[in-house]
Amino acid sequence: MHSENQPLPPVTHADAEGLVAVGGVLTIDRLEEAYSKGIFPWYSEEQPVLWWSPDPRLVLYPENLKIQKSMRPLLNQDVFKVTVNRCFDDVISACAGVPRKDQDGTWILDEMREVYSKWHRLGKVHSFESWENDELVGGFYGVQQGAVFFGESMFATKANASKFAFIKGVQWLKSKGIRFIDCQQETEHLKRFGAENIERSKFIEQLGAWKDMEVELSGEHILS
Length: 224
Prior knowledge:
By secondary structure, this protein is of the alpha+beta class. The protein is built from seven helices and eleven strands.
């Protein structure tokens, strides 16, 4: 983009891989604009800011959540305590720092952690945490636009901790009125939870219908 004040182009301008625009600076105002248009930033340290809107788009409708048989005993026993918005900074730092298979480094750069943390304090970004004996062992975070939740990243230092937080989190988001969860990138892991691909045009249509709905997710909550 040639100017910081230049609006992001519509998602119909995206290339075959879903890249909509290149450049600009991460600010809360720019992120508000991007997510409201179905666009998100994803780039590495040596790149300019890259703005994406893939087609198709992987989403999870909360009513379609699938719970694997292996998770049911853990859920019945409440093996982890799950909270909302208790320690956002720790969650995003853990998402950035936990080693991942076949991945060098992180896309959650310092500037991203800083601006998303500020956005969290404004009540638009939320974290979900799994605890074991008062130790943070898993969780995820995401961006809220009305009745739409954009999942960003998750982590676990104990087996099943992020899955546990995700299941409890999706159930809670459904109870609060969230209509769908944007999974952004297609993964088999999320498809096992019931996520499905939809055409980007349908995604944008539903986002437009639901992004201005009143849904309150702020504050700290205990889910289990």
